[in-house]
Amino acid sequence: MIVVPCVAVVALGLWFKRRASRVSPESTLVRKLTPTGIALNSGFALILLGGAVVRLFEPQSELGALLATPTHIFLALLALWMLFTAASVVASRLGHPLSQRQGQHEPES
Known about the structure:
Structural class: mainly alpha
Order of helices and strands: HHHH
Number of domains: 1
Largest sheet: none
Radius of gyration: 17 Å
Number of strands: 0
Helix content: 55-70%
Strand content: under 5%
Distance between the termini: 31 Å
């Protein structure tokens, strides 16, 4: 069930990247993200949005109750940040960096 929104967000990010590259070929912000970076950042945003939705609409559930206090929100954000950082390091070591190094350009498709 969560796969469809994730795929939609990644596809939208790739579409935006191609569109922005055509409009402004020298764009320094959009052209540096790789598909791995778009996917990981999209997943991060979806998890943040999902936590906010659960806290707002299901405050009596286990996760909603956990996110009800500022301390637990801070700890959840810290854990999510650590997970994001670890995932980006693992992806980079496997040859899929989140962004390109300065001076590298991805081939036009």
